[in-house]
Amino acid sequence: MDEPEEEDELAATSKGSAAVQGASVRGTSVARHDTLTPAQRQVLDLLGCPPDERPRFDADLRQRLLLDLEDGLAGVARRLPADTTLWVSKHPLTQVHGCEAKFVAEHETPFAWSAPLARGTVTHKAIELLVSWPGHPVPLDVVDEAIARLANDASHLGDWLRTCGDAERAALRGEVNALVVSFLECFPPLKAHWTPVTESRVRIELFDGRIVLQGRVDLALGQPAGQVAGKVLIDLKTGGFAPNHRDDLRFYALLETLRVGTPPRLLASYYLDGGRPSPEPVTEALLDTATQRTIDGATRMSALLHEGVEPVLRPGPACRWCPLADTCEPGSAWLGGSDDLDAFSG
Ligand code: SF4
Hints:
Blueprint: H1 2-10, H2 14-26, H3 29-34, H4 38-47, H5 61-79, E1 86-88, H6 90-96, H7 100-107, H8 115-132, H9 139-151, H10 156-163, H11 166-186, E2 197-206, E3 211-221, E4 232-237, H12 243-260, E5 266-271, E6 276-281, H13 284-306, H14 329-337, H15 339-342
Parallel strand pairs: 1-3, 4-5
Antiparallel strand pairs: 2-3, 3-4, 5-6
């Protein structure tokens, strides 16, 4: 009996919110809906959709997008040095569409784990555990289990978790606990039949693996039914809105379409600090925009990394975190004139 009623929750829309509340008067779901916070109800309203209102996409969309990508990137694949793979994912794409000098500098900097960098992965693991956690979860118990499982992995993150100091581990534990508490308070409890998947990896190989598009979706809910879209892709964010958050999810929507054939129904950045999703419906035009942005970004990445092209400097907010900030004149000038910094200067 529980299963169909719970499924209706995800099938609700803002119009369906009344339906949810109406249903709660009729049946056993009264207690369940009464236990949702207003923030949790709002998430259901914003992310849900009745099955008969979900969009249907053409069966040949996947093939068309693939051909568009291959047409746009054929020259890049031809020019790549032998035995070189061009890895394209959301972070370098965002970087190369910003300041190209920063993109090149960070590409050359070896990656090292730290508590802030590990925070996202540990939070996603904790959220994954919440789906099947028995009874009422105690957030710190879930966080500790997430850290323990990741520390057992034979991965770079596992190595770092096993060897980082107590202070760094405590900082990580505290930060992830705050995010998990926020998620529990503001996001509706995840139901197993919503098919929640955390950190699902997608990898699309073009030109026999010379160019690889890859991504890892924080949280996916729902599934398509044939050509009818049903999946919601969610990026869990700390901090506030940034325009590239939408571009990141559009890139994931493109990867999902290339993988499955039926695009996701909805994309949503979910801001843990504010407890609110920022949703965007998936359309064919959105996928075309994502395709062109991917072609432009990959072309530029290859030119900068493998063809000796000079990077373009684009000073802006990212100068604050740039490894070249101390020696870059346009960056220093931008930082010197930034109102944000002036507000904190003496
Ligand atoms: S300081 Fe700013 S302008 Fe200079 S390289 Fe870095 S991001 Fe680009």
